[in-house]
Amino acid sequence: MTLRYPTRQGAAVRAAATLAVLAALCWPSAARAEYDWFAVAHGNTVTAHRTLVDGSRIDDMFGASLSTVEPGNTIFFDAPEGTVHWVEFRTAALLTLEKVYVAGSGDTEGLIGNHDFRQFRLYAKVNAGDGWGSAVLTVDHPEDRGGLFAATRVLATPVEGRFFRAEFDHWPHVGYDPRWWTGSPRILELQGYGVALLEPAGLQAAGFAGLGLVSLLLRRRRA
Ligand SMILES: [Ca+2]
Fold this sequence. Notes:
With 223 residues, the protein is of the alpha+beta class. It has one domain (32-198): Jelly Rolls, CATH 2.60.120.260. It is built from three helices and seven strands. It has helices at 8-25, 27-30, 200-222; strands at 45-49, 74-75, 84-106, 117-125, 137-140, 147-170, 186-197. Helix 1 runs antiparallel to helix 3. The longest helix has 23 residues, at 200-222. The structure holds calcium ion. Residues 60-61, 72-73, 188-189 line the site of calcium ion.
């Protein structure tokens, strides 16, 4: 007598197959909002940025620790008032960006607030050839007091994007000639949270991978 799924093994195969399909096809919803898509460890790639001080590394504002001057921090090169410091990057997948965390730190000795930033802006676009348009998020720094400034912002309207540009305004130091070059923003971290949207090709590949696994499991059961 032949039973189709008579045993615990059969149930296990069915469960594994179901999970495989769900994992493959529902990957976008599985990529939950607490996954930092801006981390270089998660496939983010910096494509361009303004000059940094010697020994500083741009990846350090995205979770890396490669800088020789201040490991973990990214420091833009000194500049006069009015300078906009910037970085552009591309995430591993097209996202619906929901939440952003930005942290910087100004000096607390000497020229207090040196290396603070006055305003942070984030831009997003879906395709490389698109224009940046208006900022999708703006965060004002309340004062150049030095020390940690960290802000978490939930976007009022989630934004789709894979290409991003972050801008940091140089702080105008009161009492200093605006033409003098002072310390540029020290960025500790920039993080982006949301849900990945697989591109059609990626979704298809994930679906085929899931079906392939199901087929393999069923074949092994029959063997
Ligand atoms: Ca960092």
